């Protein structure tokens, strides 16, 4: 889990794919969708933190922040009319993470199989939520039991953009929670053999006015494997 922050205000989530790159959503790299792009100096990546206000209050030697050297957006993001297709980006860090000694975090695996093979499987998403205490601290937790839905069924929902083959839908089955605005860029993942965490989606968007109403649209990582590997090949996995 990573947070992308600007002036210590939380913008989006992301995931570690190697020691040099954070995978996130393309729209997280703009101040306004497709209008004002962030530059690397605007962003800070914070890892190993379940409370974004705790960086200077504890977890010494655990929580770490990294400056961003380069923002790599998909070349076709913001070029599809009314859709937010190709909603994917990579943040290249200015220095490598020491993943061998940073035990509290780890890399997530990329998928070997298309999302269709997980149809109606249950995945897990990461959510950010405010506590009710006086500081309104933002904590990370997990949404278990997110059911994947076939691509054609996505078009039945009133989303603000057209669904494309680069997206898939998921719905939280046990209540009306879903990933929300602050969760954008975060991972949707499957756990294999109780130990292998495989990211299959990136939190992209939901229906207008949903207020986390139990369903969402995710960027299909499998469709972008070649792009991810090409752009992040100078990173290492140890």
Automatic annotation (TrEMBL):
Q: Does the keyword Nucleotide-binding apply?
A: no
Q: Give one GO biological process term.
A: proteolysis
GO terms, molecular function = serine-type endopeptidase activity
**Coiled coil feature spans:** none
- CDD domains listed in its UniProt record: Tryp_SPc
Q: Where in the cell is it found?
A: Secreted
- Assign the protein's first listed, main location to one coarse class: secreted
Gene Ontology CC entries for this record: extracellular space
Which keywords does this Swiss-Prot/TrEMBL entry list? Disulfide bond, Glycoprotein, Hydrolase, Protease, Secreted, Serine protease, Signal
Q: Does the keyword Membrane apply?
A: no
Q: What is this protein called?
A: Peptidase S1 domain-containing protein
Q: Which organism is it from?
A: Meganyctiphanes norvegica (Northern krill)
Taxonomic lineage: Eukaryota, Metazoa, Ecdysozoa, Arthropoda, Crustacea
């Amino acid at each position: 889990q990573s947070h992308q922050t600007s002036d210590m205000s939380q913008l989006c989530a992301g995931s570690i794919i190697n020691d040099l790159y954070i995978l996130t959503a393309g729209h997280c790299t703009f101040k306004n969708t497709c209008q004002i792009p962030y530059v690397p100096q605007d962003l800070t990546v914070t890892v190993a933190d379940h409370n974004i206000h705790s960086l200077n209050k504890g977890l010494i030697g655990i929580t770490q922040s990294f400056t961003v050297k380069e923002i790599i957006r998909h070349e076709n993001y913001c070029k599809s009319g009314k859709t937010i297709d190709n909603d994917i980006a990579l943040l290249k860090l200015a220095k490598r993470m020491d993943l061998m000694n940073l035990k509290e975090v780890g890399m997530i695996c990329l998928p070997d199989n298309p999302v269709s093979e997980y149809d109606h499987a249950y995945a897990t998403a990461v959510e950010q939520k405010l506590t009710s205490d006086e500081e309104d601290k933002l904590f990370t937790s997990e949404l278990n039991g997110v059911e994947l839905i076939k691509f054609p069924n996505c078009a039945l929902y009133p989303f603000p953009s057209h669904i494309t083959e680069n997206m898939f839908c998921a719905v939280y089955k046990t209540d009306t929670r879903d990933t929300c605005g602050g969760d954008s860029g975060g991972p949707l993942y499957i756990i294999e053999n109780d130990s292998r965490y495989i990211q299959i989606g990136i939190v992209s968007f939901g229906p207008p006015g949903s207020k986390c109403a139990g369903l969402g649209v995710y960027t299909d990582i499998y469709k972008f494997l070649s792009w991810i590997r090409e752009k992040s090949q100078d990173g290492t996995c140890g």
